[in-house]
Amino acid sequence: MKAWFAIPLWQRVIGALILGILTGWFWGPGAESIKIIGDIFIAFIKMLVVPLIFFSLVAGVASIGDLRKLGSVGWRALLLFVVSGQIAVWLGLGLGTFMQPGAGLDASSMSLDTAALERAQTRADQGVTFQNMILEMVPSSPVQVMADVNVLPLIIFSLLLGIGILMAKEEGEPVLKIFESGSVVMQKVTMIVMELTPFGVFALMAWVAGTLGLDALAALGKLVVLNYVGCLLIIGLIYAGMIKFIARLPVIDFFRGITDAIAVSYSTASSNATLPVTLRCAERNLGISNSVASFVISLGATINMNGTAMYLGLATLFGAQVFGVDLTWGDYFLISILGTLGAIGAAGIPGAGLIMMVLVFGQVGVPLETIALVAGIDRIMDMMRTTTNVSGDAAVATTVASLTNEIDRAEMISADDV
Ligand code: ASP
Known about the structure:
It contains 21 helices and no strands. The two termini are about 35 Å apart. It has helices spanning about 1-5, 10-25, 35-65, 65-70, 70-100, 115-125, 130-135, 140-145, 150-165, 175-195, 195-245, 250-255, 260-270, 270-285, 290-305, 305-320, 330-345, 350-365, 370-375, 380-405, 410-415. The model has no long low-confidence stretch (mean pLDDT about 85). The protein binds aspartic acid (ASP). Aspartic acid (ASP) binds near residues 308, 352, 382, 386 and 389.
């Protein structure tokens, strides 16, 4: 038991992935019999969706209350977070559309829980009107919305609650405390569920390899590659561009300064766990003032997740291609909004992006079975998403610090203690 926990989770997951593929390969379609283990893992993930979004989003919105205190820093950071998040989702959508990661995979042999498909079909039959879409977003009964795991109105309710807490000022503080502590507690619960990952991954990979064969592995491999390409483009174009053209600082020195944060984020797959290292890099190596670094980077670790946003766009198209769901331009637009909101609502912990898929898939009629298909390879992709998320926090902090003269340029350029 002790020896098991002594191995870092990500290594156990990668081991399970390889073992699962081999098992499926030798066992063939019979491997379907152990899929139940994967289904249990996914059921636990679904369990997390509502409470995690609810607590994390309300606490996140309420923490924006400090924005006003920070004035010029606050609004600049928020603008950069939102704009880069939007570009990231569209990048994921673009990669998914042009590179077609799910095209070669025929999932017709999979047994489907067709609820999401039917919901999308009924919506299409009724004609998706703008009025209907707006009406569906209103959380007319918050409890019902939670019971139905209807995430979009849940997000609206959480945003309103967060704003209400802000408006109530001192009187809202006890409620804020509940949400802040609830969000920490839910992160711990998620950590417990994540301990099931090796077992779930083993069973899901054996099932995928055994029933869908090499085609499936090739499609999943392509998804992993595209996830890395998308993340590298975000880092190499958006962040490098931000540092060079907006902050007007040397790009190489920036990346040299955050090497530690990159290494820790990649191995932990958690923006939150990396937070102390990111802060240290920002202050010591990049020369950012303590007030800007601590504010922008802690807020960023909660709401700025461009790797996750890109992935939500990409994975939705993957699922749509695998299950033959036609997406309209309206759906693309919806995915871009949901991807950004999902990234904001995702906690900075391993597997959060996987949990957020429920949000996007459910709204555009992509079967939730897609989650079972990709769960086995999520960890490898999560590591790169997290590195992208963390680099983004540092890039925005550097840019905002440069615009508000809160950075010691000489220190950044001469920093060699990385
Ligand atoms: N693990 C990521 C993070 O902590 C979130 C995700 O799963 O995409 O930043």
